[in-house]
Design a protein that fits this description.
heterodimer; A: about 300 residues; alpha/beta; 6-stranded mixed sheet; about 25% strand; globular; B: about 300 residues; mainly alpha; 12 helices; elongated
Chain lengths: ~300, ~300
């Protein structure tokens, strides 16, 4: 496919522009470095002062995306494919190793993993969290009841956070985050939170949010959810962008891929991956600061 | 995730896309300094709520509750009185040694507590930092407001001890000057806390050194002895008397114990330290704004 230098001109204002983002971590590996394995005389000293064996992990390879208003983007891929890394970068929780994310307003992530202040009670955490999102005290008071209702914590709202079960804490976290109406909404598997009753309630609120939001990013292991909700699907594998397009097409390819893998057909699975990659058209962002094109 | 694969696979096709970037801002970017101060002002309700809620919950675990806010410096004072007043007799030549000691310890303890909690505020609240987008300086400021709030009963107790314990001191109009002295001290604490908060967010090891540094600082601040007795070299004495905490303590002692109007030099030194530390601390902390809680 040769698209070459034919520049496409995008009218209007996009919501999110991911520009050549790449993420890499340096982490300690428990595997011994083989370089000085035999040298034993100062082993104790070395253990006390030396750094552990550091390994670079390539979590996300260079990636560019442009998401316009009204799009719902589903992100699919196996474990460790870089889905959550990409979400964290878009929401601003982690800083990419290189590249940058531009957004038309502050993206809000509805996660289930962030803890609040353990020593404070649930209701204090509600107020604190809302204030931390930039609400005024009056707005918080206005929304307080609906947040508590959404969290379903009832009387437990007055107990300290540290007495909460992990399900209760994540429900509260979701309810707080869902109290704003963000233009850019990121959802990381929040649908699987809590018991069935909360699931219905949170789904309702999420539908509301999605309708109001300018654009939505969704990570979920449930492909049905993604098929229902998204207008565009991105398939990541081992930090690489594999596919970016229509939900039906991308999900079908991904399902084929995982089916072959689970049967042990690694070769045919790799073939699907390569085919998808071969058809991929990567985006190159060229920023402009005018409404009209230069040429 | 693939380890150590530094080379990115080249995408098969690249589509240049011209995007209007005018309304977009980089996610997680640092605003300019004045905007940053304005943002902090917008988050004042968050700062005060955070401070208030945590004063209440800080000692909930203890049976005696908030009484520890008072008991702690009282026991401290008792210990130093036994060792330095009775055993080592550093009290020689000091008029009202008990009052001298109590003022020194209470005032110093306010600074050591405020600097420590300001310095640790980013590390200890990593989950809030990651979950919400707010100007990060709100946390060290909140920590200092909290310390200032809990210093109110502390100072009242200090004054009570001075009035009750023999030789009992008279209450004079000079006591009012304690308020501006402590406010200036608080600004100084905040400035130092901001600097340390950025350092500790990068190099956590510094938290282990902090108690030693503060203890050394305490020993040179003339809390249980007078400079005049041990330091004979005049230049040395002048240099030592530039210590901002010594100046606060000295001002409060003059006002409360000796009914003397504090020297203007002491005020000048304190004002320079307070605003200098605050200015340096704010700018230094702001420069690291993008790095807190990330990566």
């Amino acid at each position: 496919m040769d698209v070459g230098e034919q520049e496409i001109f995008l009218e209007g204002h996009p919501c999110v522009v991911v520009d050549r983002v790449r993420m890499r971590y340096r982490v300690a590996s428990s595997a011994a470095s083989e370089a000085n394995a035999e040298e034993t005389k100062s082993r104790f000293l070395r253990r006390a002062v030396s750094k552990p064996n550091m390994v670079t992990v390539q979590a996300l390879n260079e990636l560019s995306l442009v998401v316009e208003r009204g799009e719902s983007v589903g992100i699919i891929g196996r474990n460790g494919s870089g889905k959550s890394t990409l979400m964290k970068i878009i929401s601003g929780q982690s800083k990419p190793t290189s590249g940058a994310v531009y957004a038309s307003s502050t993206p809000i992530m509805l996660g289930v993993n962030a803890a609040l202040v353990q020593d404070l009670s649930g209701d204090q955490n509600v107020i604190l969290g809302c204030l931390a999102m930039g609400m005024s005290r009056a707005e918080v008071d206005e929304k307080f009841n609906s947040i508590v209702e959404l969290s379903g914590l009832e009387k437990s709202i007055h107990l300290p956070m540290k007495s909460y079960s992990s399900g209760m804490a994540s429900r509260l976290r979701f309810a707080i985050a869902a109290s704003v109406d963000p233009e850019i909404l990121l959802v990381d598997e929040a649908l699987n939170t809590g018991d069935a009753q909360f699931g219905d309630r949170s789904k309702l609120r999420m539908d509301e949010l999605r309708e109001q939001a300018g654009c939505v990013f969704l990570v979920s292991h449930s492909l049905d959810t993604i098929k229902d909700m998204c207008t565009r699907v991105i398939w990541l594998d081992k930090g690489d962008l594999i596919m970016d397009g229509e939900p039906e097409v991308a999900i079908k390819a991904y399902q084929d891929f995982t089916r072959h893998l689970s049967k042990g057909n690694n070769v045919s699975a790799a073939q699907i991956l390569d085919d998808a990659k071969a058809n991929l058209v990567a985006t190159e962002v060229r920023g402009r600061s005018s409404r009209r094109s230069r040429g | 995730m693939s380890a150590d694969s530094a080379i990115d696979p080249e995408p098969v096709a690249v589509q240049p896309l011209s995007v209007d970037m005018r309304r977009l801002t980089r996610v997680g970017s640092r605003p300019n300094f004045l905007d940053y101060l304005v943002q902090l002002w917008d988050f004042r309700q968050f700062i005060f709520y955070d401070a208030r809620a945590r004063v209440q919950s800080g000692t909930r675990r203890d049976r005696l509750g908030s009484a520890w806010l008072l008991l702690n410096p009282i026991f401290n004072g008792l210990t130093y009185f036994l060792i330095f007043g009775l055993l080592l007799k550093t009290s020689k030549g000091v008029e009202n040694f008990v009052g001298y000691l109590v003022v020194g310890i209470f005032i110093f303890q306010f600074s050591s507590g405020a600097i420590t909690s300001g310095a640790r505020s980013i590390r200890n609240n990593k989950s809030i930092v990651q979950a919400f987008n707010f100007p990060r300086a709100a946390l060290p400021i909140g920590a200092n407001v909290r310390e200032l709030l809990s210093a109110v009963p502390l100072v009242l107790a200090m004054l009570l001890i001075v009035v009750v314990l023999p030789p009992a001191e008279e209450i004079t109009w000079l006591w009012v000057l304690v308020v501006p002295a402590i406010l200036l001290q608080s600004l100084f604490n905040l400035g130092v806390g901001l600097i340390l908060a950025r350092i500790i967010s990068r190099v956590h090891d510094v938290t282990h050194l902090l108690p030693f540094a503060i203890r050394a600082w305490m020993y040179v601040s003339a809390i249980f002895y007078t400079y005049d007795r041990f330091v004979t070299h005049p230049q040395m004495l002048a240099a030592i008397k530039l210590n901002p905490l010594f100046n606060v303590i000295d001002i409060v002692r003059d006002c409360v114990l000796y009914a003397r109007v504090p020297q203007w030099q002491s005020w000048a030194i304190l004002v320079v330290w307070a605003f200098g530390a605050l200015a340096v601390g704010m700018v230094y902390f702001w420069k690291g704004e993008e790095s807190y809680g990330r990566g």
